[in-house]
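Attaching the record inline, Q. Sequence:
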Amino acid sequence: MTFPPREVRRWQPPPPPRRPARRQIRWWERPGIWWGRHAWIPLWIAVFLTPAALLSLRVIDDRGVALLVPTLLMVMILFLLLVLIVFVRTTASRSMFRALAGGGSAVLATILLALPMIHVIGQRQCPEWMGPDRGVETSLQVLEAWRRGEAPPRELWVTPSGVDEWKPRAERSTLLDYKLLDSGCWERMAPVASKKTWHEFRVTVQKGDGDPFSKMLTVHTSATRDGWRISEIDGPDPS
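Structure, as predicted:
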């Protein structure tokens, strides 16, 4: 059986699948998308701004809002970790070597830029928020034991080697008197290091039957879980 030409059904290709409607990007989503595509830019901006951020915290450290410095410093560290994690995660999908090399370079650059900021450049008074003690009481206990001719309390030292090094020096002379002259922290361009302090004393000592003489003695203290402990004592070395 034949059909007229106009009645023959021609083959028609199937319709193409419908593409899903493209979701409209909200304005607040655009920064996150841009960050995911260019994660290296925020990372290196954060790296090069590290010295400026530390210097800004140092300025705040001398103001009435100094109590916010530890919190702001923690926020800065967490932000650096965040941009580093985002960079490694987004870059690793394309090249693991590039992610590790870029992340390692950023960490190294941050350390090199931060080292001059945390280098000690002098002495200064401790901020008020550190409290009145700052290791002074611990220093006085050690000097009082020396004046009485008693063994230095081992529990007041950071390490046993410290007291073993100080004991023979103290036994070479007798402490007659001591006076606290000054006490403070270490100056640097970053926020003050609140875990290490110094205390300067003028001591009057006598070696054997010789004449008494006065010298300067500096006690270095460090904050530990059990309170302030002595890390080192500079002087006096009788001559």
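The chain has a mean pLDDT of 84. The two ends are 131 Å apart (CA to CA).

More tomorrow.
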